[in-house]
Structure formats: C-alpha cells, structure tokens
Amino acid sequence: MAAVLERSLVEICGFGREAERRFREVTVSPGVNTPPGGLKFADSAGAFHYDESGKLLSVTSNRFIHWWTSADTVQLVEESLDTNLLNNAIRLKFSCCSVLPGGVTIQETLNNIIILICTNQTVHRLVLPHPARMYRSELVTECHMQSIFTDVMKLDLQDPTHFATIPGCMGQTAVPGAVAAWLSLHGDAHFALASPAGGITVVTLPPYDSQGSVSVVELKRSSMMSRLSGWMPTAIRGEQSPPDLVLSLAVREEEEDSLIFALCQDHRLRMWSLTEQTCLLEANMLEYMPASKGVRRLSGQGHHLRLAFSSRTGLCLCVYLAVPQRGQFIVLQLVGTDNNRYSLEHISSLFSTQEALVDFTLTTTDVWALWMDESNSAVVKYIDFEHNTAGQWNQVFVQPPPEEEVHVGVDLDPRETYLELLFSPLRFTASAIVRALQIFRRGSERILDPSWENLKKEVTQAVESELQSSVTEFEFSQEEYRQLQVEFWSRFYSCCLQYQEVESTPLGLTVSHHTGMACLLRKGFVSFLLPCFAVDHLYLSYDQYLLFEEDTPISDDPDVARDVLQLVRTLRLVSDAVSAEMAYEMEKALEYLQTPPERAAELVLENMMCNDRDGVIEDIQNKLQDIRNPMAAMMALLRELDLETDSDLGGAGPVAPGLSVRMSLSQLYGSSCAVSIVCQAVCHMAMTRAQFCRDLLILQKLYLHFGDNVFLGGGAQLLQLQQDLIPRTSHLLSSYHLLKHISQNLSSSVPMDTIDVNLQHLTALELSDTPSVSTGRSVLNPQTVLELFYQTAARRIIISQIFSQQHTDSLLLWNNMISNVVQLLAQLLWPSNPGFQFPECLMANCQYTQLQDYVRLIGPWCQVNIGSCCFVLAQCYLAHGEGQKALRCFQEAATEVEKEEFLMKLTGTEDEEAAASPRLQYYNKVLRLLEDMSLPELIIQLASLALAEADDDVHCQAALWTRIFKHHLDLGHNSEAYEALTQNPDTSMQLDCLRQLVVVLCERSQLQDLVRFPYMNLHNEVVGIIESRARGLDLLTHNYYELLYAFHITRHNYRKAGTVMFEFGMRLGREVRTRLGLQKQVNCYLAALNCLRLIRPEYAWIVQPVSGSTYERPGASPKRTSDGEFSAEPTAGRRQVDILELHDLEKDYFLSRARLTLAQHHPPSAAIAGSVSAPELVLLLAQTGLFDSALSLSRIFKLDLSPVFDTLTFKCIQLQSGGEEHQSEAWSWLAANQLSVVNTKESSATDEAWRLLASYLDRYPSTNGQHHHHVIHKLLSHGIPLPDWLLQSYKCLDAPSLLRLLLNFDRLEMAAELVLEYVDAVLGRGHQYFGIERPLSATSPPAWLPYTAIDQLLLALSETQTQSSLHNKVRDKLAEYHNVVQQTTERRLGAQRQVAS
C-alpha cells in the first residue's frame, strides 16, 4: 500500500565518511590591519538554492551551495543530488578581518553566480560563471560535473573593482548579524551594515563589467546625506540614541528601488528607500505582542527579521522578538499604495517556549525555526503561519547523538563492538574520529592514508598500544583483560563523542523556495529533513502531539484512530521498560536466529515482570483497558507497517521521449550525497520500525498474559491474536531487522579481475544484463550494500517507476520525490515482495559474504523466492570453493524454476532449448556456468540429476550424456566415460564422443584402456575412427596404427592386424625418409609377417590398397590431382585389388631391412633409401661396402650379382693401389661384412678385402664362372695382376674363357702358359686343376681344346719377335696333343671294330 505521510520531518545526516573534505584554499589580503580589541563573532552558516533547482532538465537540478563562516574564514561547498561535482569546495581566508555572521550572500543572474561577502572591515564580490553557461552541450552525460568553483583560483580577488574597505571604525563595533547584501537590477553590489550608533550604512560596488567608483550611503533619521567614501565627522553627523541600533537587516529589491528593512533595538521595524534615502515605514512590533508593557523597557538583543515573496501573498515579513520565556514570531504583509505609502497587515503571531534561537527562515507558507536546548542539541520546528491548529508546531525528529554508554555483550569482543559502533554509517563523521585519534595519541601526527579501512586500523592500533603500555603485570585473567579492553575503548569512544558533539553544533537552517527541500546546517556537515511516514511519526512523537484522533491519518474511523493513539502511547511505556540488556538479547535473537522472535519477546516480558519495581506493568495494563478494539488498532498499524506490494517494481516504465530527458532521469538522485541520504533514510526507517515491531510483539505477549482482564471480546480475539497478529508482527520484525542489517552492512572491495571473471559467469547464465558493477567507487567512502544496490540497480528502477506516473515537466518537489524514493527502495528490499533485484545485485557485484548473510537471515521465516535464494547461495558457495554445498542449492532451486521470476530468467531462450522443459533449461544454464568455472565433478553430478528430468526428451538426454562423457574423460575416468558414451541415444553424438575418446586416450598414452573396452555394436566405428585418424595425421607424432594393430591383436584378428602394420610400413617408406622411419618400417613389416604366420596358410594374405594420391604424395588432396583438377572417379566395379601373400611381405620386409642397414651405416642415404628399388638399393649397398646385404638382397629378388662383384673388385683395386687413408676407411665397411675365414695372422685391409672377394666367389657360384669373369675383367681393365687364387679358381671353372680374357688384354705370356697347362691337363697331367674329371684316353669322353683362341694366341706370338720361344713351345705342345689324340683315336676305333666284329 502507498505510504501515508505526516507533516512531521526526520533529520537524515548527509555527512560523508571522508576523513576531511578537500578544500582548495584562497587567501585574500585586502591591505588592512587587525583592529585592536576587535570583536569575536559567532560561527554562522547559510545556503543558496538555484532558481531552476526544481526542474528536471536544468543543469542546476537539485543543486545548491552552502557555507560556514568562522573568524576570518568562509568555507563554500556546492552540492548536487544528481551528479558528483568536482572541485566543489573552497576555503576563503581574509587576512586581518573577521567575517560577519550572515555576511555571505549568493545571488544568481543569467550568466553568473555572484557571491557577496562582508567582513568587519571590507566587502567583497566574487563573480563566477553560471552552471548553465559552463557546458556547451545541453546533454551532460558524465557522472561527474565541474563545480562553479573550478576556476576560482584564477580570480583576482585583490582587484579593487571587487572589494572595498568599510570606512571609519565601524568594524570594531559591528552588530553581529545586522548585515545584508544584494544585487540591484543594474548589477550594483550593495552591502548594508548597521551603524554602531544607529542607522544603516550602505556600501555599493559598481557593476563588475563597468567603470565606476565605490559609494557609501548612510541612512539615518536625523538627516539624509550621502558621500562617495568615508564617514562624516561626529560633530556634523549628530548622534542617535542607542535604542535605534539596528539588530537585523533584510532587503527587497524592486524595479527602481531597494527597500531595506531594519529591526532595531527599540522593537521597531523601519523600512528605508535606498534611492530616496528616506524612511518609508516605521512600526512598533510590540503592538502585535500581548501583555507587552514589561517588554517595552527591555532592549531587544536577539530580534531577527526574515522576508519572503510570492506572487500570491506578495512580500511577507517575519519578525522574531526575543523576549525571555515569551519568544514570538510575527508574520506581517507589506501593503503598498499608489502614492508610495506603505503599511503592514498582521497575518499571524506564533509563540514558542524555546529560548536560544539559532536561526529561522520564512517561506511563502511556513516559518521554520532552529533552537538549541540546554544540552546543546538542535531543536527544529516549523509551522504554517496561515493555517495551523491552535498554533501547534510541526515536529522535526533530529538525529540523536550516539549513545554515551555502550553495552558490550558477554559473548562479544569489546574491540569488535566498539569498532562496529564507531564505523557504522549513522553515528560518527570520519573527521571526528580523526581528531579523537590525534588527541588519544597525545600528538598531532597526521594520518597519511585517510581511507576508511586504514582509519579503522589506525584506531585499533592506537587503542591496543595504549592498553599494552598501561599493563604492568605479566599475567592476568581473561576477564581482567576484557575489563581493560572495555576501559580503553570506552575512553576513546568518549573522545569521539566529544568531537562528534562539536561537529553536530547547529549553525543554520535553509529551505528551498523552489523544491521545499529543508536542510539543517551543522558545523561539520549538512543534514536533510525528510518527511516522516505516519507510523514512524506516531512512534516518535511526544504525547502532546497524540491528543486527538485527527493526529493520526492511519484510519478514517475515529474509534480506531483513538485506539491507535492509545496503543502507541502504551507502546512507549513498553519501550521505556525494556532494559538495554533485554534489548541486546532481542537483537541477538534476530541476528543469530538463536530463538524465534516470539520466544525472545516472551523472555523479555518475563524479565520485565520480574524486575517491575515501579509498577510499569500495572500502568500498561491500565492503558490497555482503555483500548476498546485492540485487534482493529493492531491490524491498522500492521497494514501500515507492511511494505508488501502487488505492483511490479522491476519494470522499466515508459521510455522518456527525448534523449535529454533520459539523460536527466539517468542522473536524478545519483550523486554520492543523494545515495547517502536515501540509504540512511531507509536505515532510519528500518531501525525505528524494528523497535516499533519489537515493542508491539512484547505488548501482544502481554495481552496473552493478561487474557480476559483486558480483552473485552474474550477468547475469540485472543485466538486471533495468537494465530494471526503475533506471527504477522514477528514476520514484520524480522523483515525490518533485515532492512536494518542491509543498510548498515558494508560492502567489500572487489579486484577488477574478480569482477571480470564474475561477468563471464553471468554471461554463461545469460544474466550479463544485470545492472553493471559499480566502478569508480571512492576508497574514502566505503559503501553499504544498500548504497551499492541503490547506485547500481535500484535508482534506475525507482526513477522509472516514479516518472511512469508523473510528467517530466513537473517540479521536483522534495517531500514527494524523496518519500517516494525511500518508500520504493524499501519495497525493493522487502523480502516478501516478488522482486529479487537486491540479491541479484549482490551476486553481480561479487558481494558473496554479504549475500550469504542475507540468505541466512531470511531463511527461517521468508517463504518468497526460496528457489532464487538457493540459487544465489549456490553462487556464493562456488565463489568460496564449496562445490558440494553449491550443488545441493542448485538442486533445491530447480524445484522452484517455474514459480519464481528470477529463476524464469534462467530458462533458455535459444532455439535448441525452446522445446525443453523449464527445469531442463535451468539445468543447462547451470551446467554452462559450471563449465565456465571448470568444475567437472559438479557438472557430472548435476547432469546425472538432470537426466531424471529428461525421460522423454532424447535430444536433451543425448546432450546430458555427452556432457557427462566429456567431463569424465577430462577427469581421467575412462571407464565412466565409456559407459556414458554407450548410454548416449543419439548416434551422431555417440560417434563424436567415440572419436574424442580415441583421440584423448591416444594423446594420454592410455592405450590399454582404449583397447580393452568391448565396444559393443561400435566395433566398426572404432576401427573406422582410428583408421581415419591414422591416415590423416602425422605418423611419428601419433601412434594410431600401433593402436589399431593392438586393437586387432587383442581381438585375434591377425590378418587385419597384419594389414594395418603393412599399411603403416608402406606409408612410413613414402612419408618418413629418416632412419627412424626406416626402423619403424622394418618393425611394421616384421609384425605383419608374424601376423600372417599365425593364421592358416590359405588365409595368409592381405589386400594391398591401390596406389593413389593418398599414398603417392603425403598431404595430397584425395579429390584433386597435382594440377588442381578434380580426379576422375574410378569406374564402378573395376577397382583393382592387389593380393599380397606371405612371400610378397617377406620381400618387402627384406627390402626395408636392407634400406635400414644402408641408413645405419651411411646416414646421408636415409633420405633416398626409402624410395629406391631393389636393384638401385643393391648398388647403394655395394657402394657403401655392405656386400653381405647387397648379395642377400640380390638373391632374394633374383638379381644379377655381377654389380656387387664389380664394386667389391673395384674396392680391392683401390686398396691395393691406395695409401693408409684407404686402408683405415676399408676396415669400417669390412667389419660390416662377415668373413668366411678367420685369419689369425695379422693382415692388411687389402688382404681382408681380397679374402672377402674370394669368399663371395666361392659362396655364390655362377654358371661358367660368370662372377670370376667379371672380377678378372675388372682387374685386367685396371692393369692389376691377377691373384693366383683367382686364376686357379677360374681355371677350374672355365679355362677357355680365361684364355680369351687374357688374349683380350694382350697377356700373351700368361695365355701361352695357360695353353700349355691346359693341354697338359687334357692329356692327364694336372687335369684336376682345370676341373677336368677324365683326361684324354681311349675310354674317356671326347676332349676338346679352344682352337680359335689358341690360333689367335699363335698368331699373336708369331707376330711378336720377342715371343718366338713361347710360340714354339705352344706349337710343340699342340703337336704333342695332336699326336696323342691320333693314337687315342686309333685305339678307340680299333676297340670299336673288335667289339663290332
């Protein structure tokens, strides 16, 4: 329901918590001397409000200037409730002068702000730019704005055109407060001062933008004379009687004249015309005072005068006659006639019993007054001077000073208790604490870091140091130490109280004529007067204000209103009867939730009744009997106390039409000052109403105790009280205690990186449009969580709500606006309202500790937003690393997703989530959050819970199982990941998971797990995935082929295992041209061979993939040729298939092993060895000296061995003709070959090489000694003598071929010798050396000789003269042979004839 306002006001202290306001100091030296025995003037204060301060679209909206004067100093501060003003505080010091009380006046022109200052010796004028002229654009978008004092340091305040010296000795006897200053319509600055001997002196400065001189005019009854400067001699001037001494001045500027009103010591009011310098009106104020005979003889020393003008009432005057015990305000209206004659019309006379008037002000409807009572506390009242009830003043409940005695609970630490009191927002200014700290330290050392947190540390250190230094004993009990703590902390607290009392000294009162904003100007700060709500007014008012039913607007029924008043008066008795100890126990029950409020109230009541020595309970019982219908009265009060509302406070309201309007609304009540005022007002409301509810709850328990003795209605009302009203009161008490806690709980400073991380988390929840995090927060001004909420979220909501119901052109009337803001802010905080903006703001600003405290306080009794509270509590647990607690809270919040507005925001808006249930959408958002925070264990648990909600949603089930799989896999839970994979109902997602499982386990080298999984119904998919990965990735960095091999081996599929390893080896040969690649290839082929040998021979074969682009060029596109064109599609049904059997694999294996051998002995050849054919490889091996390998490879591939023998022969030739270098090199390749004969004698490399050659010729025989032929041919071609063993060996194999070789190379002697020996062998002499089994005989097979070669030899010998002897020998030997042949032939023929015959 809407709040009901009373006419009473409550003071809200607007002091900031900075250690000291940063004033920029300006010293003005007017060139005067300090007067001897000068008067000391009291401190004063005042304020100026801009004309357009009530207009929303104005730059000066909610903007004003206030000042304090003390001795020679004026402190001016410009404040704004909308924006924070920069450079807004200056301190002016006037050398050798004292500023007169009331001597500061500020006026506004179209382009300037003019400040007029009057001291006891000089007058000054400061011309500053108007705020509307300081900004080029109409739109001021900054959250900070420059003050008009920004450029004050550039002003020349010693300029003669802006100051003047008051002539004569008037300053030494000036009348305090009898001064007025104003601007004429022509721009002249007038200063009116009371003359010491009576009359008025007016000093005039010409307009600042024109030439002119200072003029001084004296207004007095005896003569009308003026001078340009100086005072007339006394003899010429004459003397006035002291009763005519002016006590107070006021001025009204008319079009062509200035009317100066002077209230004099003789109780008369005189009105002077400055233009005519005549007294136009004189009236005796005692005529308006009843029974004034005794007053006439008294001189009025404390009279004051104020003016107010409005178009409705004209010019009104208010005169305060300071008469002991009979102070009176007289409100008069000035009435003028055409012939320049004036009269006063009496409007009202107002009386007050207060004595020490400090200040008062007059508005067009009210008189506002400020007094100080006997305890130096401020007393503020106001009254409508036209319409009031029996002259009754309206109350202003000023802020009481902090309590003098601090109750420290037995279970509390004294230090924490005092620190909480000292640094809570409502009690002490930081400057008071700083000064108390300096005194407590007995020094004036300055605090270098004035931040709030550092100040708390400094105070703690100072008190603890003082305590430690006073301790003389080394041991004492804990109770004694606690007493010492209380003693020293109370001493420091007393210092703070004294300085806070000085800071709180009231100096002035100001009320804006445009907005109605009233401020109390105290010495150290400004406080604001806010309208008091009806229920607060009833509880705070004195009994004399609660006499009539009309005094309460809560009920229109006079009977109920009378009962309400009686009930409130009874509540005050209850409040007075509650001791400090019991109040603390009640507070503790609410804060720590130890006992329900109802039970705590019963304990307080029991204590009251046990300690009732003054008959308070009886007095309460008597008052209760006067209440006719207590149920109705209580229900009326409870309705007013309850802030529950059905309206939507979270809506943004209609959008303002213009950008300027929107910008102004975005700043309205957004300054630090306004934030402090609004939040302290909510705090004051909460504290007042919490105490109200406490007392009401105790009173209700007392009703139950009295029973029928006070209830006229009997048992029915008692039942209603017990079952309805007491629970409602208890609920309200807890709610207001919560508001009080929020308004006093300080927020925590958060590092920017934490804020950034939190913003990422909110984005994951799609809550990033939550009001932005407060930036630029002053470290000197720590915010309460309420201030943080108001700044970041609540103010925007509240202003939108207000201006959705009123036009932006309407005036910003203070009472209406501020009461609406406070009421709406309290409703936003009210836990029973559906809005959840406050906890959401705490979550967005990382205030996790405060948020946990909030949820703790509302948990036992609030049934609204239960799920939302669980959700934000889960966020707190996550921030503090308590994952399991967070999970439980997330689960509890899920049950309320479809019921609470905040949780509804967590239901997805994306297309894929549109079909899911709200609870599943909620789970998805939370899972995203947990993924963003990298909490896989919690994700698995929450996703498992969410599966229960997705029974009918296959898509959601698949997504959840995929999440579970992913995070199990991340955690290394391979078996669980596989299980989740198999449970996934979506085939495509299942394959994705399967692919990820394979890749991750391979990267982790957890191949055993990968191979051992059964893969039911997924066997082919696994193989396909591993094959595709194997064929698509680098061979050396990934071992997918080996994995696939192990996979098939485990399942005893040896042929596929062999196929995999063969493919692996084939790719290694093409793509990895390194020694390591060759080694792997050998192993692969060997593994493939082993696999095929394990199966039956008829199945020992594999299919070789068609050689294509995939294998011909590593990394080549499978779709395009090397020219970039699309490759032709293979003809369907005609794909070529190559079948490789075991012997084919063996060939590839031996070939690869030979390549590896080559690469091992000659690393540079590794790059080419992988692609060479077998014949090429044989040559490379032979050239490298690996003859064993070359010969073996040649035999396997059935290649000619001649190249090997050629190469080895050449190496022997090189060794035989080379030096030591060739010898040393030869041993390396000789060692790589296996010698058939081990020679124990020392031999050279040449010998070993020849021996190796000989062994190969023996080991690898050839048809007709072809290998020998190649060797001998090589040797002969290089001119190398033939070794005997070689000749002997070849003679046995093919002597004719040897003969032809010798002839080819002109080795005639050797040829001749060979012929001779060969003929002898045929004839039977040494035939075994030529491989002739049976020499020439009649019984042996026919023998033959190479006659062609022999003929060539004979011819060659015959042509050579030196070889004639050899020629003859050969001829003779042939002749001998022929003879034997003839004889043998004849015997053979004879034998045949005999046989034939």
Automatic annotation (TrEMBL):
Residues 1141-1386 form the NUP160 C-terminal TPR domain. Residues 830-1094 form the NUP160 middle TPR domain. It holds the Pfam family TPR_NUP160_120_M. Its main location: nucleus. GO terms for cellular component: nuclear pore. Residues 1110-1131 are annotated as: Disordered. GO terms for molecular function: structural constituent of nuclear pore. Residues 557-789 form the NUP160 helical domain. This is Nuclear pore complex protein Nup160. It comes from Crenichthys baileyi (White River springfish).
